Every structure is written in structure tokens, then in C-alpha cells.
UniProtKB/TrEMBL annotation:
<feature type="signal peptide">
    <location>
        <begin position="1"/>
        <end position="17"/>
    </location>
</feature>
<feature type="transmembrane region" description="Helical">
    <location>
        <begin position="144"/>
        <end position="166"/>
    </location>
</feature>
<dbReference type="GO" id="GO:0055056">
    <property type="term" value="F:D-glucose transmembrane transporter activity"/>
</dbReference>
<keyword id="KW-0812">Transmembrane</keyword>
<feature type="transmembrane region" description="Helical">
    <location>
        <begin position="117"/>
        <end position="137"/>
    </location>
</feature>
<keyword id="KW-1133">Transmembrane helix</keyword>
<dbReference type="Pfam" id="PF00083">
    <property type="entry name" value="Sugar_tr"/>
</dbReference>
<protein>
    <submittedName>
        <fullName>GTR7 protein</fullName>
    </submittedName>
</protein>
<dbReference type="InterPro" id="IPR045263">
    <property type="entry name" value="GLUT"/>
</dbReference>
<keyword id="KW-0472">Membrane</keyword>
<dbReference type="InterPro" id="IPR005828">
    <property type="entry name" value="MFS_sugar_transport-like"/>
</dbReference>
<dbReference type="GO" id="GO:0046323">
    <property type="term" value="P:D-glucose import"/>
</dbReference>
<feature type="transmembrane region" description="Helical">
    <location>
        <begin position="172"/>
        <end position="190"/>
    </location>
</feature>
<keyword id="KW-0732">Signal</keyword>
<dbReference type="GO" id="GO:0070837">
    <property type="term" value="P:dehydroascorbic acid transport"/>
</dbReference>
<dbReference type="InterPro" id="IPR036259">
    <property type="entry name" value="MFS_trans_sf"/>
</dbReference>
<dbReference type="GO" id="GO:0005886">
    <property type="term" value="C:plasma membrane"/>
</dbReference>
Length: 192
């Protein structure tokens, strides 16, 4: 039933597609981008009900005034800007770690009947890690999560290397390897 499970992802998209025309545009978009104050008021009434919403409109106008003084950079300008260079390097390194770590190649080492379960488990671990990250970042801070995440990911990859080399000697190493992959995904999601 995996094809049915994969096709079920289309149901929420279909619901969104059908209901989207009945929702109003974003009030800040209408006011800031289009300059449509009446459309903004109508959208606010539709979203929040009748009442006095002038304070909300004033807040949007203040944000619009602030945005006038902010320069929007193109991608090329962003890459040339020295103030953003370290952030850009960090994003490139963080994204490269997942692409180059080889975790997808490890998944293909399992027997065919395990691969769908590993894929499902990885997806669930990604959801879990995003929930955990939002609570842990306030408690420990970004730097601690990055250091801890990379340290734990390295440890998990070392253990995973050992379990993959011992898979033919012990039947349960397959399952231990799957658990390590799940931990890797969780530590990546919480850290980097």
C-alpha cells in the first residue's frame, strides 16, 4: 500500500487548492505592496471579525515606513556584502554536510523490505527533531546546539561504520544501524 500512502500527500494539497479562493489576501501584503487600504480593512474584518482594527492598520503602516529605509539585496549583492559573508559560509557548510555525509547511501545497504520503514522513520525523526529544536534552542542557545549536534553526528557516523561492517556477523546489526540513522537525523535536525 506504499503507493496509496504516497498518493495521500495529495489530499491536503487538494483541500488547500479548493479552499484557497475563499480566504482573503494577507492584510500586510494588500497595504504594503498594493497600497490597497480598503482591501486591507476588508481582509482584516474577514480574518478577525468586526471591530475597531485601526491599531493593526497603523502597525502595518509603521512597518511599511520602516521597510522604505531598508534596501533589499539581490543574491549577487548579498554574496558581495562583507557583513553577510560569514553567515553565507555557514549556510553553505551546513547544507553541504547533509548532502555529503552519505546517509542516503547507508540506507541503500539495507535489505529491500526494510527500506520503506527506514524512509518512514527518517521522516518521523525529522518531524520530532523540528519540535525538539524549537524547545531546545531557547534553553541552550544556537551555538551549543551546533557543537553538540556535530559532535553527536560524528559519533553516530563512527558507530554506524562499525555496525555496517558487522552486519554479516550479527543479524541484529541491521536494526541497530537503523536506530543509528534515526539518531543521526534527530541530531542533525536539533543541531545544524
Amino acid at each position: 500500500l506504499w503507493p496509496m500512502l504516497m498518493a495521500s500527500c495529495g489530499l491536503p494539497a487538494l483541500v488547500q487548492l479548493v479552499t484557497l479562493p475563499f480566504f482573503p489576501e494577507s492584510p500586510p501584503y494588500l497595504l504594503m505592496r498594493k497600497g490597497d487600504q480598503e482591501g486591507c480593512k476588508k481582509a482584516i474584518r474577514q480574518l478577525w471579525g468586526e471591530g475597531h482594527h485601526q491599531a493593526d492598520i497603523d502597525d502595518i503602516m509603521k512597518e511599511k515606513a520602516t521597510m522604505k529605509n531598508t534596501k533589499i539585496l539581490s543574491v549577487l549583492e548579498l554574496m558581495k556584502e562583507p557583513a553577510f559573508r560569514w553567515q553565507l559560509y555557514m549556510i553553505i557548510i551546513l547544507t553541504s554536510t547533509v548532502q555529503l555525509c552519505g546517509i542516503n547511501a547507508v540506507e541503500s545497504k539495507f535489505e529491500e523490505y526494510l527500506i520503506p520503514y527506514v524512509s518512514l522513520g527518517v521522516g518521523l525523526c525529522e518531524c520530532l527533531s523540528s519540535i525538539l529544536c524549537s524547545t531546545l534552542i531557547d534553553r541552550f542557545g544556537r551555538k551549543v546546539l551546533l557543537w553538540g549536534g556535530y559532535t553527536l553526528m560524528g559519533s553516530v557516523l563512527a558507530l554506524l561504520t562499525m555496525t555496517l561492517s558487522l552486519q554479516h556477523q550479527f543479524f541484529w546489526m541491521h536494526y541497530f544501524s537503523v536506530i543509528l540513522i534515526f539518531l543521526f537525523v534527530i541530531f542533525y535536525g536539533i543541531g545544524p
